[in-house]
Each structure stands twice: as C-alpha cells, then as structure tokens.
Write a structure and sequence with these properties.
Blueprint (H helix, E strand, L loop, with lengths): L5 H8 L1 H8 L9 H19 L12 H16 L5 H19 L36 H6 L4
C-alpha cells in the first residue's frame, strides 16, 4: 500500500528536487514510474512495521504515516547520494515505525485482533490499556485439585 502521493512529495521537497532525482538523463522532468517505485518501497517498509499491530490496508492514512512515507521514499530516491540530513531523517522515520510497532505510539486506525490496540479515531485519549501474562492457575487447573 502507498501511504503518500507525488503531491505529498512535491509539497515537502519541491518539484525540482524530485525531477533531479527521477529524471536520470536531464534532471528536468519528474518520472512518475520512479516516484511510484519509491513510494511502494516506502509503503512496504511501513506495512512490515504495522502488520503485527494494525489491520491493513488502513481506511485513511494518518498524517504521521504520510510524513514517514515521504521521508522513506526520499531516502530511496537519493540512494547512495543521500546527504547526512536525509539519512538522519530516514533513521528517525524508522524509529517512529519501531515505536508504532512496540506500542509506544498509537495510530488512530483499527487494531488487529492479536496485536495491540489503537485509540479510536476522534477519541480524547485517556484510555487505559492493560496487558498481563496468562494466569498460572486457571479454573480448569484448580478443578483438578477439587475446587468446587
């Protein structure tokens, strides 16, 4: 799934930068196929982080994921020519994905059955989440010892 569009990339980084990174001959025109590939690669990275915690594909993309997708796509577009700033931004995006995967950050999208929980869209937050290990002494085990 793609989480961002060409318009999102242009709004963040400008058409000139995208043309220079995608038009391998003259650097004048944005090559949509190259952009699509970078956005698909970014989407695959995001999906691999979200899949264990959230039901995919998401119905609507939260702004945080648009930003992360743009950052990752930009890094892939620059490849070995990425500046320190672009690499740092990419590493920060990966940290955000790790926080989402671990549950330290929640997204306002539907959670999977087995994963964590996500705040309902539009909720005021403040919900309490509890995660506990499975009980050691279940009712079935206690029944074996003559519990009535």
């Amino acid at each position: 799934m793609t989480y961002a569009t060409l318009s999102d990339l242009i709004a963040r980084y400008g058409a000139d930068e995208l043309a220079q990174r995608t038009d391998r001959i003259a650097g004048q025109t944005i090559d949509q196929a190259v952009i699509d590939r970078a956005l698909e690669d970014a989407g695959a990275e995001i999906d691999s982080s979200l899949a264990a915690r959230y039901a995919l594909p998401v119905a609507s993309v939260p702004p945080l994921l648009v930003r992360v997708a743009c950052t990752i796509a930009r890094y892939h577009l620059h490849d070995e020519a990425a500046t320190k700033r672009i690499r740092d931004d990419y590493e920060d995006a990966l940290k955000v994905l790790a926080e989402i995967r671990s549950g330290a950050r929640l997204l306002p999208i539907a959670a999977t059955d087995g994963g964590g929980t996500a705040a309902a869209a539009g909720s005021a937050g403040g919900a309490v989440r509890v995660r506990a290990p499975r009980p050691t002494f279940t009712a079935e085990l206690l029944d074996r010892f003559g519990r009535s």
